[in-house]
């Protein structure tokens, strides 16, 4: 895959942004509990450097972002108010405000009243159904209104900075269409993510180990097929391992199983059996619950009445040995239900093995999503990895060899 060429945030800053409206697409889709508290601010922290650079340079910053998946309209439970509060704590409450709508009267008034260095966060962009519309004209109409917030009717005074890596694989109004209407630049976060992924695909130092977990084989089939041809080891854990075990004729009890993928997994094992590594023991329980009693059993002896919720200690030991001499490691997906302390040891053990390999000189990438959340929830040192991505889906699609619309549009 050829290196991606685009203008950067530094290019925009060199041109000058003082007094200029700049539209930024950030990924601020953070988990929020029932009390409205942000439980993992990782994406906000990762987005802050680009916003700070623009604000410090005197730009009038308008930020678009989403939270969750509202279905065609406003949902108070998915308001970006908690995110605006968090940004206010980072940049000063006097310099951050939240619009009461997306591109409506309140957003227009607030955008017109911005001073240099101010940040306006628009309400959840997905409250406007045009954001995710498959109709090009509908998306373009929303993009045109977004442009008016920073550059007037023709956008001549404004600029667009794409810094939400977690959404660049989506052809959406605030990701793709606005870049066709404004001078466009890659923010620090997006530029860093692309550099890392290019290193994984074009200048990978061997041995190359890939660690995949999570729930479903179907979610990661394409990346498995693509990486199995380039990786020296493909380590599989999490819920998806049970479909592979079933493909070997192993009983998996009541564990998560994709019956429709068993033949596919059998084919993958037949083709790449010398590359794929599966768990040798499993931590099982009678039910999916934090207080369920854990029991470790051999991977080929899961009782009919038990479900697998984590890989076992022998598997951690095996995977650690496989990762110990790797020079490049990509990890996407937990090894078990890490949210439950009794079933978190597998994920933590494999993560610690990756940290150890990194300390010995390996280049390691955590592929976003649940893996990144696990690193923080389990109290692991983030600087123990070479890079922690903010976009799991985007990372996987890039590694599958797919074109990411939100990146492709920046090269035009």
Structure description:
The strands form 3 sheets. A 6-stranded parallel beta sheet has the order 3-4-2-1-5-6, sandwiched between helices. The chain starts with 8 loop residues before the first helix and ends with a helix. It is elongated and about 65 Å long. The chain is of the alpha/beta class and 412 residues long. Strand 13, helix 12 and strand 14 form a beta-alpha-beta unit.
Detail the topology: elements first, then pairings:
Blueprint: H1 9-15, E1 21-26, H2 42-56, E2 60-64, H3 81-91, E3 96-98, H4 105-112, E4 119-121, H5 136-151, E5 159-163, H6 173-177, E6 184-186, H7 188-202, E7 208-212, H8 217-227, E8 233-236, H9 241-247, H10 262-272, E9 276-277, E10 281-285, E11 295-298, E12 307-311, H11 313-323, E13 328-332, H12 345-359, E14 363-366, H13 369-377, E15 387-388, H14 392-399, H15 405-408
Parallel strand pairs: 1-2, 1-5, 2-4, 3-4, 5-6, 7-8, 7-13, 8-9, 13-14, 14-15
Antiparallel strand pairs: 10-11, 10-12
Helix pairs in contact: 9-10, 11-12
Could you write a compact summary of the structure shown?
With 412 residues, this protein is α/β, with parallel strands linked by helices. It has helices at 9-15, 42-56, 81-91, 105-112, 136-151, 173-177, 188-202, 217-227, 241-247, 262-272, 313-323, 345-359, 369-377, 392-399, 405-408, and strands at 21-26, 60-64, 96-98, 119-121, 159-163, 184-186, 208-212, 233-236, 276-277, 281-285, 295-298, 307-311, 328-332, 363-366, 387-388.
């Amino acid at each position: 895959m050829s290196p991606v060429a685009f203008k950067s945030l530094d290019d925009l800053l060199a041109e000058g942004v003082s007094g200029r409206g700049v539209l930024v697409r950030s990924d601020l889709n953070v988990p929020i509990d029932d009390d409205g508290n942000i439980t993992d601010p990782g994406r906000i922290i990762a987005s802050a450097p680009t916003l700070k650079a623009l604000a410090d340079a005197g730009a009038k910053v308008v930020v678009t972002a989403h939270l969750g998946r509202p279905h065609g309209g406003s949902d108070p439970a998915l308001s970006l108010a908690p995110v605006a509060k968090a940004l206010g704590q980072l940049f000063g409450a006097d310099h951050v405000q939240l619009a009461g709508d997306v591109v409506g009267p309140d957003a227009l008034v607030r955008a017109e009243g911005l001073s240099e260095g101010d940040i306006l966060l628009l309400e959840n962009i997905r409250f406007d159904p045009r954001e995710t519309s498959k109709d090009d004209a509908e998306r373009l109409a929303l993009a045109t209104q977004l442009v008016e917030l920073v550059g007037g009717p023709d956008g001549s005074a404004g600029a667009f900075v794409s810094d939400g890596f977690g959404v660049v694989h989506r052809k959406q109004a605030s990701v793709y269409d606005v870049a066709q209407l404004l001078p466009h630049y890659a923010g620090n976060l997006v530029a860093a993510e692309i550099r890392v992924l290019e290193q994984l695909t074009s200048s990978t130092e061997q041995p190359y180990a890939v660690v995949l977990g999570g729930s479903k084989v179907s979610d990661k089939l394409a990346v498995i097929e693509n990486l199995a041809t380039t990786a020296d080891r493909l380590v599989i854990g999490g819920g998806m391992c049970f479909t592979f075990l079933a493909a070997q004729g192993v009983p998996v009890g009541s564990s998560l199983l994709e019956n429709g993928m068993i033949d596919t997994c059998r084919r993958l094992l037949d083709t790449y059996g010398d590359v794929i590594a599966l768990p040798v023991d499993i931590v099982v329980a009678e039910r999916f619950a934090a207080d369920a009693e854990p029991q470790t059993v051999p991977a080929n002896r899961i009782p009919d009445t038990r479900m697998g919720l984590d890989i076992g200690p022998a598997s951690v030991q095996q995977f650690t040995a496989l990762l110990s001499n790797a020079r490049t490691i990509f990890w996407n997906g937990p090894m078990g239900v890490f949210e439950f302390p009794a079933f978190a040891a597998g994920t933590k053990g494999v993560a610690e093995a990756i940290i150890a390999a990194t300390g010995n000189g390996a280049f390691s990438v955590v592929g976003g999503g649940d893996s990144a959340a696990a690193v923080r929830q389990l109290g692991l040192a983030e600087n123990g990895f070479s890079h922690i991505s903010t976009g799991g889906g985007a990372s996987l699609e890039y590694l599958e060899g797919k074109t990411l619309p939100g990146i492709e549009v920046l090269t035009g």
